[in-house]
Amino acid sequence: MSINIEAIANYHCACGENPLWDDRKQKFYWEDIPNGRLFEFDPATGQHAMIHEGPEQIGGFTFQEDGNLLLFRQNDIAVRREDGSIESIIPFNEPDIPRFNDVMADPEGRVYAGTMGKKNDEGGTGGLFRVDTDGTVTKLWLGTACSNGMAFSPDLSTFYWTSTTADTIYAFDYDRTTGAMTNRRVHMGPSGHPDGMTIDSEGNIWSAHWGGFGIYIYDPTGKQINKIDLPVEKTSSCCWGGANLDELYVTTAGGSDDSDTADGTLYRITGTGAKAAAPEFRSRICL
Asked: How far apart are CA 140 and CA 137, in angstroms?
């Protein structure tokens, strides 16, 4: 790989997360979870801006089919319309789950939403939930204190899910018709602290490692085949973007308003020779 690493914006995010490329607008979005901030970057102009700020923490978001943003917050799921207005649409209150953490739409418009939790002997009180298009929320499993990155294999037969608590990426058989996940198995780990992830057109997983100073790349068997080093310790997530879906955007964490470090910077990596198989799926949750 002959790569180039570019710092795009440093808002000193406490926990920059949920990088997402809008293939229709050709713009990039990300968030700062604890501060409930959302950001937008336009590569055509080089301009970036904060487009929303708290007070609620935002654990993740998706693009709805109609262009609005679906926000997964502390105690609800809300819609942010293009005029900036926000409406809570689905309440969410589960014992010992403080908020959502990392979400992803599937090809049918459902959303898989991870949560934080309290660590216990079973791993934790957090887990993964599925939000069906009619707004029904189904608990899939618990057992982690920090549910994290997800991805589908290019042929959509396999679903990958990260438990940072277990330092493991799991694989499941995915039923597109029902949204069911079966045959759970270890894909990678335990190793490091895998956080958010994406996948390329060859089925390689690109995993940001919390505390790992970079992006770790695993082949379809789960073997590490490369690493891209970054100057920030807490790399939190990554996704493909750009007109050809071959630019890797990486969020980082550890910043603060009074910080003058690179912690919390958004990076763009080009020249990897890899790309996404398709744009990110859009949610179609009925409002």
From this structure: 9
